[in-house]
Amino acid sequence: MTGAEYLAIERAATFRSEFVNGEMFARSGGLYPHGQLISRFSRELEDALEHRPCTVTVSDVRLQVAADAAYVYPDVMVVCGGPAFADGHRDMITNPSLVAEVLSPSTEAWDRGGKFAQYRTGASLHEYVLISPDALRVEWFTRQSDGSWAYRAAEGPAGICRLERLGVNLPLQRLYRKVEGLGTA
Q1: Domains of the chain and any CATH numbers
Q2: For the residues 34-53, what does the mean pLDDT come to?
Q3: How does 38-52 read in b/e, with b if 16+ C-beta sit within 10 Å?
Q4: Which residues are CB-neighbours of 28 under 8 A, at least 6 positions away?
Q5: 20 to 30 A from 175, CA-CA: which of 45, 100, 116, 154?
Q6: Is residue 104 over pLDDT 60?
Q7: What's the rounded mean pLDDT across residues 159-164?
Q8: pLDDT band at 87; cut points 50, 70, 90
Q9: Which residues, 6+ apart, have CB-to-CB distance to 141 below 8 Å?
């Protein structure tokens, strides 16, 4: 299937799917803690970026990673300096500065491997964040000036996710507050 065929089906569908290298994959819903972490992470980013020209979206907005190669719905995206939309529609972003995924058992290997490989092809992407739904743990990759990616991780209630390119520090204690099964008081 081509990217154009996928987009025609996806835009008319009553369900969401993603497209990678000619194949279409149905998306399923997540567990309650997964949804809580998407909401908390996006809210913390919104608050931290309130006075900057950046906006935060959650999994309703499609990302075109590479024309006709990958179209996905990241859990959270940050766009700085205004969105660039693909093909004249306002339903597909091409220029995220940050992408975040809340991990799940069924997608973790893909999020860490193939999906991250796709994301790295985007010139605007500077930070990629992986959020654990099972422990107070956030991992992130930051694009360096030479094009390589530096890995960092924060764990436990004292951990802080330091998103250098955005100038944002997110304490894990705040991020995981009230998250079912993990949250702090």
Answers
A1: 30-175 (3.90.1570.10)
A2: 94
A3: bebbbebbeebbeee
A4: 106
A5: 116
A6: yes
A7: 97
A8: confident
A9: 116, 127, 128, 149, 150, 151, 152
Q: Which structure tokens are listed for 140? A: 């992130």
Q: What is the DSSP code string of the chain? A: --HHHHHHHHHH-SS-EEEETTEEEE-----HHHHHHHHHHHHHHHHHTTTTTEEEEETTSEEEEETTTEEE--SEEEEESS--BSTT-SSEES--SEEEEE--TTTHHHHHTHHHHHHTT-TT--EEEEE-SSSSEEEEEEE-TTS-EEEEEEESTT-EEEETTTTEEEEHHHHTTT-TTT---
Q: 């500077």: which residue's tokens? A: 126
Place of tokens 């008081």: 185
Structure tokens at 104: 């799940």
Nearest to 155 by CA among 137, 174, 130, 179: 137
The contacts of residue 176 (CB under 8 Å, 6+ apart) are 37, 40, 136, 157, 182, 183, 184
Query: Do 136 and 182 meet the contact criterion of CB atoms below 8 Å apart?
Result: yes
